[in-house]
């Protein structure tokens, strides 16, 4: 059961990427820009975590569903995977919402009711 959390994170990340592929929202719309945004977002959140760990604010809790593998003191392997999921999920939700709002505005300007 030690790999449950990591496995679920990877499954949900895969689901986000399937949504992205189906609607061409983020990576499948502009792969280079999406890669840059993902790397910058992941680096930002990892730096945030490392600062929190160094400041004694963030601690690694013991959980039966976690692997117990740490990349650095107080930084479990699940954390970067979660942060990657967070960035991808946010960008897929943002680009999806932007597309919906753009379509609604366009329809509204044309006088078509939603």
For the record, the count of structural domains works out to 1
Q: Please give the number of β-strands.
A: 2
Order of helices and strands: HHEEH
The fraction of residues assigned to DSSP E strands is: under 5%
The low-confidence runs, each spanning 5 or more residues with pLDDT under 50, are none
Strand order of the largest sheet: 1-2
Cα separation of the termini:
47 Å
Oligomeric state: single chain
Please count the helical segments. 3
| Major sheet characteristics | 2 strands, antiparallel
Give the overall silhouette.
elongated
Question: What is the SS-derived class?
Answer: mainly alpha
Helix fraction? 55-70%
Chain-averaged pLDDT: 92
Radius of gyration, whole Å: 18 Å
């Amino acid at each position: 059961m030690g790999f449950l959390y990591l496995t679920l994170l990877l499954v949900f990340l895969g689901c986000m990427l399937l949504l992205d592929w189906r609607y061409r929202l983020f990576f499948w719309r502009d792969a280079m820009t999406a890669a840059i945004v993902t790397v910058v977002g992941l680096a930002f959140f990892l730096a945030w975590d490392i600062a929190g760990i160094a400041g004694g604010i963030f601690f690694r809790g013991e959980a039966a569903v976690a692997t117990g593998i740490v990349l650095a003191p107080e930084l479990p392997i699940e954390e970067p995977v979660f942060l990657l999921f967070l960035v991808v999920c946010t960008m897929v939700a943002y680009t999806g919402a932007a597309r919906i709002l753009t379509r609604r505005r366009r329809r509204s300007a044309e006088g078509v009711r939603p």
